[in-house]
Each structure stands twice: as C-alpha cells, then as structure tokens.
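Newbie here. two chains, one complex. Structure please?
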Amino acid sequence: MDYRAHLAKRMLMNKKGSLIGAVLAVSIGILVIHVNFVIFQGLYDAIVRDMKAYRFGDVYVTDESGYITKSDIALANWFERIPYVEAAAPRLDSSADINATKYGKKHEKFGVPVVGVDPFRDIRTSTIYTTVGDGQFVFARNSIVLGSIIARDLGGLQVGDDVELTFVNRWGEDQIHRFVVSGITTSAGGQGFDFSVIVHIDTLRSILDRTDETGAIMVKLNDPSKATDVKDLFLRSFPTDDFKAETIEESAESTLRGFRSGIALINLIGYFGMTSSAFAIVTIQMMIVSSKTREIGVMRAIGAKRKDILLLFIFQGIIIGAIGAAAGTALGLVYTAYAKETKLEFEGSLALEVTYNWSKIGQTALTSFALAIAASIYPAYRATKLQPMEAMRTV
Amino acid sequence: MNKIYGEGETVVHAVKDVSFSVKKGELLLIVGSSGSGKSTLLNMIGLLDRPTNGKILIDGIDTTNLKDDALSSFRNSRLGFVFQFSNLLSDLTVLENVLLPKKIQQNDDATDDAMKLLRTVGLEKEIHKRANKISGGQAQRVAIARALINKPLIVLADEPTGNLDSVNAETIVQLMKSMAEKLGQAFIIVTHERDQFGKVDRVITIKDGRAFEGEEPRRMEVTV
C-alpha cells in the first residue's frame, strides 16, 4: 500500500471521533437522498402504478372524435393477438345524478362520474375489481359498484341497497335507471374510483343510446417496456381511423408533471444536504490538519514534498468517502428494503411503490464519494502550505 | 550567511556573517546560550529555513536557489534530522517511523536496513510498538535510526538530549558519537549542554548570532 494511503488510514483510525463524524456526515447525506427517493419517487411510482392499474393500462386508446365506433371485441381481440399484450378491455365514461333513500331519508349527489366496464375483460386488464372490498364487481347488468365516498354521502349505502341514477343520453334526454349496489370500492391515494360509480358497459351503452360505442380501450402488457412498440403498431395498423393511443407515461403526463417538479425540488434539497455534509468534512479535516501540524512539519523536514502532503489528506478524503458512501448506501438499502417489505404507507394513504433504482443508488454513492474527496482538497491544500519550521514549532 | 527577521525597528539579526565548513565524519558541536541563534543556524544548514543572504553548499551543490520540491528531495537523501522532541509520527510504529524517509523515496525494500539500524540502537524488540508507546530515550534512539536510514551526508541534531534525563542523555550522546565514528557521516549537533558531549572533533560557539571557533567566543575566520 502507498505509504501516504497507509498513513492517512492510520491517522484516521487514531482519530476515531473525527472519522466517525466525517463518515456520519457522508452517510446521513446519502440516507437523506435514499429516504427522499423512497418516499417521493415511491409516491410518484405508486400514482403511476394505480393510474395504470385502474384507469389507463399500459396503452390507452381513445378516438379523437370522442367515441370509438369500431367493435370493442374486435379491437380487444386484435390487441390480444400481440404476444406482449396480456389483455385489453373497453371502458365508457359518463356522469349521472344519483339519489337513494336510506332509513326513510333521501340523499342526492349530482354529476357523479360513471364508468362502464366489461367485467370479464376488465378483471384481466385492470385491478380495479380488487378494490371492491365489500360485495362483488358488476357482473350483473343492473348492478352498481359505488365508490366509498359516494356510498358514504348517500347515507351510508351498503351492498344490496337500491340507487337511482339519472343520465342524459346522446339525444339530451333524461334516462332514469335503478341499480342494486353489488359492491363498495375503496382505494388509497385518489387514483381509484372512490368518487365514482362503476356499472356494466352494456347497460351504460343502452342508457346512453350508444350501442357498440366505446370510450376507450385499455391495454395491459405482459412486458410494459414494449408499450411504445404496441402503440406504434396499433396506429400503423389503423391509419385511416382517428385513433389516439398513448402509453401510460403520456396518459399520466398532465397529472404527473407538477409532481415531477416537486420530486426534482426534493432531490435538490437532498443534494443540498449532501453538500452540507461536504462542509462538515471540510471542517473535520481542517481539525485533523490542525492537530497534525507537527507531523506534517516532520514529514516535510525529512523530505516529503508538498504533493505528498496533499495526497495524504486526499487519501483521507477517499477513505472517508468510501466508508461513508458504503455505510450510507447500506443504510439507504436497509431503509428501502424495509419500505418495500412493509409496503410502506403513511396513515392509510397510498402504499409506496418502492423500487431499487440501481443507477440512482450508484449515482448517489459516487456523488457523495466525489464530494468527500473534493471536500478534502482545501484542507489538504492548507496542509501543503505549512512550512516545516513553523509546523515543527507546534509541540 | 546571515539571517535577519523583521523590518525597521523590529529587525533581529539572528545569524551574522557566519561561515564555516564541515568535513565528512566530523562531529561538530554548536554551543551557545538560549536565543544565541544556534538553532536558526542549524535550520538553515538543514534547509528548513533560507538565509537572508549567503550560500549553503552541501557536497558541492549550492542549495540556495533550489525549488521547494528539490529542497525536499535534497533533505531526504542527504540530510538526517534528530530533533529535541523526537518528533516521531505517533500514528506509525517504530519500524514504520524508521522506514518513512525510504518510503518517501518510494523505496519499499529497506526493511533489512531499518532492522539493522534498530538493532544498533538497541530497539529491535520494540519495532511493532506505536511511537507514542515508547519512552523518550527510546524515541530519541528511533529518531537517530530514522535520521540514518538514507545514509545522509550530514546528520543535524537540535538539542537531542534536551528533553532527556542524564542516563538517557548519556546513551544518546554515546550513540551519536559511535555512529559518527562508524558510519563516517558528519554530525552537527546543537546543544547548550556542552559537558554531556565530552571530547568532540570540533566546537563552534554562537554568541549574539556570531560564530566563534572553539569554546571561547573568539571570532572565526571566514572561509567562504
């Protein structure tokens, strides 16, 4: 081992307080970045996950004119012939006023979003059916799944209760339809249908007088990385139609744009924290240099050059950076593993989608390692400026 | 050479018109009272400090205009230092301290030489002890071994016994005298404990920055 590295190691090992302080500074900087990442990126990914699972799938097809007039079965079958596609399902959106009488009291809600689904295709394409915690999905034509907030606002409706929905059909006429509540849907995070109701798509088509029309086709892939390929293939295959196809990133863009800026800001704060750690290292190393003034003088006297002294303290930065980066990354990974295993959530909110982003983890470790080295340059430079005579007067 | 500190009214003429030469194998004692300028003189000879004017020639090389790195290399290869406080590196072991001047040269093959020197100074059993775990007398013997590891032309010792009790001081004196005799290197020793050294090759007395040959303040003849 290079004698300067060896001496740097010994100096640090014999100043355990300084070493622990400097390593902690680096580790905590990294840990802050990891915690930020787990929470905020986890939240972002959880929103994307739920938007994908409940509303858009991996590829979301609509029609520029408003409604898809091609057969939904034909389109779904077309998609399902592609090897990357696991399933495809139609959706039709509308809104209605709802009223229900519970314990002799009438409750009303206006303009409630209504989602029409093909239950047999939907359970293969979307996981919204899993949010039906009470009762079952809309397998019957006159059944309805109420969002938990809607059920609550309508006097605490339960499975088996009746509700009356007033729609406006394509001709502008009111259409009143009664449904039996088959289930209540509850989900965390606001991407589910807690504020909506779900009905059978054919019932909704019939009410709206939009037989054979579909609002959207959501497509679930078994390999989400092929979303763009599937989208492009679809658009190329139907060049004369007014189809619009979007990947989940495109569908979710408007929702997530602001969130991304927030994450960038949080990351920036994390990196500021890391920079503060670098200042802590500068301070600690300046203290080490100060306490080793006499040794520096002796080394210079017996022939060490300025660059040897510079390297000695830069090696200390390397040691601090390496131990700090390793410890910080290990702590960060423990936290990430904990968050992933426990499906971390805060007071019943959305369960975070925790992933190991190895490039980010590596980048964070390397950045803090580089910062620790950079932070050691100034103390090292100051050490080189000590004249042997002056340094040795320090006894 | 001269060494002047400060300016104007605060000027201190620490070393005045001093000129002398030292022969190979010579043991030269520089004596004088505290503040007489003897340590300043030694530091200049050791290239740790530059004279205000004058020249220092070592082995025929004018060191006056050497740049910092060249001075470091010169000190490393041709000079050995023994300080009043042994000034060992407390983070290193006895053996590592002795090897340090070799390591600075990127020479990793000097363990045998170091062991030989440590045997000579009677510390072969202490080689793995940390430098701060040995006694003052032992530390000074390690410092002598360290000063000799690169076989320098001159060993400079600044009050080498100043921090030791009489028994250890006597050991150090005898060690340096025997080394000078055995190894043929010049020893320049600054001390105000003249009596501890007994008979030496030569004595220079410093008084008020001026050098006098011998033990009486008699003006030296300038040779350079």
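Moderator note: Helices of chain B lie at 38-45, 68-78, 94-104, 111-120, 136-148, 166-183. The radius of gyration of chain B is 17 Å. Thread marked as resolved.
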